Structures are given as C-alpha cells and as structure tokens.
Amino acid sequence: MQNTQSLLLLRDHARNERDEALSALQRCEEAARQAQAQAEQLQNYRGEYQAQHAQRFAAGTGIEMMHAYRSFLQRLELALGQQERSVAQLRARVQAARALLLEREKRLAAVDKLIERRQLSQRHELARREQHRLDEAAQRWRGPAALRGGPPTTY
User: Fold this and answer.
1) What is the pLDDT confidence band of residue 153, given thresholds at 50, 70 and 90?
2) Cα separation of 28 and 22, whole Å?
C-alpha cells in the first residue's frame, strides 16, 4: 500500500509537470502569434508606404524626398528582418515546448500504467489470499476425514 501511495504522489508530480509544460506551450504559441501579427503589420505598412510614395515619385519629387524615402525604407526593412527573426525564434520555442509537453505526457502515461498494473497485481494478490482463506475454511468444515480421503463426517 505504501508503494502505491508513492506512485500516486509521483503521478501528482508528473501531472503538475505536464500542466506546467502545457501552460508554457500556450504562452509560447501566443507570443509567436503576436510576433507574427506584428510582422504582418510591418509588411502591410511597407507595402502602403511604397505605394504612397510611388504615386508621389510619379508626380515628381526632389532628391531630398527620394533620400528620405530610401533611408526610411531601409530602417523599415531592418525592423521587418528583426521581427521575422523574432518570429522564427519563437516558432523554435513553440516546437521545443511541444516536445517537452509530449515528453511530460508520456511520463504521466507511464506512471498511470504502472499504477494500473500495481493495482491489478494487488487485486490478484487479494483474490488469491481470499481463495486460500476459503479453501482453508472449506477444509475445516469438512473435518479431518476429508484430509484422509474418507467420506465427510455428518452431524
């Protein structure tokens, strides 16, 4: 019984670890979604900025405006590149968190299976003891003649 209690404590610990891994995965997924949304916003802004300035350049603008456009577009490209790297890093974290969750779920399943086997073994042992007790009681009820092979004594 003490051994089963230890296994139950181990299962609680494994369940807590699994739950923590699940929460970490959810946080990583949310961070990755937010980073992806920010990258998409930057891409959309870049497209809008380029389209807006294409119209201005078609109408004719000065060289200073062209330099300012290119300078800002370079900074925007750098920001977009940095955001895309961030998205890639967060996706890698999501994969690592998924792997950890899978490991924790497997461990919990193994502990559950061990507990199930232990309980089954205990039930078999209890049934064996009960059968042995019943066999002994039947022998006592039949009396000593049953042990010698003779007919049971009648009362």
Assistant:
1) low
2) 10
Residue 154 predicted with pLDDT over 90: no
- CA–CA dist 111, 3 (Å, integer): 13
pLDDT value at position 155?
54
Are 73 and 50 a contacting pair, CB within 8 Å? yes
CA-wise closest residue to 8 among 112, 109, 101, 122: 112
Cα separation, 83 vs 35, whole angstroms: 7
The Cα 117–Cα 120 span in angstroms is 5
Q: How far is CA 102 from CA 11, 73, 99, 106, 108, in A?
A: 16, 43, 5, 6, 10
Angle subtended at Cα 135 by Cα 131 and Cα 140, rounded to the nearest 5 degrees: 150
Q: Which residue has the tokens 């507990």?
A: 115
Mind listing the pLDDT tens digit for each residue in 88-122?
999 999 999 999 999 999 999 999 999 999 999 99
| Residue 46 CB contacts under 8 Å (≥ 6 apart), including other chains | 73, 76, 77, 80
Q: What is the pLDDT of residue 61?
A: 72
